[in-house]
């Protein structure tokens, strides 16, 4: 089924993508507000723990693997059957692969001893799937999907390394599951990518409507 390139269709679709992104981001930051409880900071110091995320590594390994493998099914489930679903799955895998490579590279670069931080590996490696979600079925081209995953992996890893500790130490806001770094930041990137690809769609790329 060809993509409808009529402006009367493309403009509402672009606005819908942005609205969905805003709803998701709203939910993320509302969750932040709920978790911003001053008492957890004192409890953390008393027990000498940094975060619950460090205590369940071995439970998270299989989950990360399954999510990485099946993430293309999330992004392609709502696409039209045929080429759109194939593009969604392919773009998602390419973006995920790029986010894995950049996560591993950035994690080792910012570590003092060049080691990998498993919090980064278990979370930021999935950022590419989040970032490409809104435009997965679009004509991103392989290099476009790789670029999306590249930036999602970088910013997600840096978020875990620097933003989360800053929020905890300065603002006393605890991101218990890395929601902002895995879904918030890539969600912002994805909303931009989705809006741009929808706005620049043309009959030369998607064919005539109908």
Automatic annotation (TrEMBL):
Parts of the chain that traverse the membrane: 12-32, 58-78, 90-110, 143-163
Location in the cell: Cell membrane
Signal peptide: none
Topology within the bilayer: Multi-pass membrane protein
Keywords annotated in UniProt: Ammonia transport, Cell membrane, Glycoprotein, Membrane, Transmembrane, Transmembrane helix, Transport
Biological process, per Gene Ontology: ammonium homeostasis
The keyword Hydrolase belongs to this UniProt entry's keyword annotation: no
Keyword Oxidoreductase in annotation: no
Domain Ammonium transporter AmtB-like: 64-201
PANTHER family recorded: AMMONIUM TRANSPORTER, AMMONIUM TRANSPORTER RH TYPE C
Protein name: Ammonium transporter AmtB-like domain-containing protein
Source species of the chain: Neotoma lepida (Desert woodrat)
Lineage, highest ranks first: Eukaryota, Metazoa, Chordata, Craniata, Vertebrata
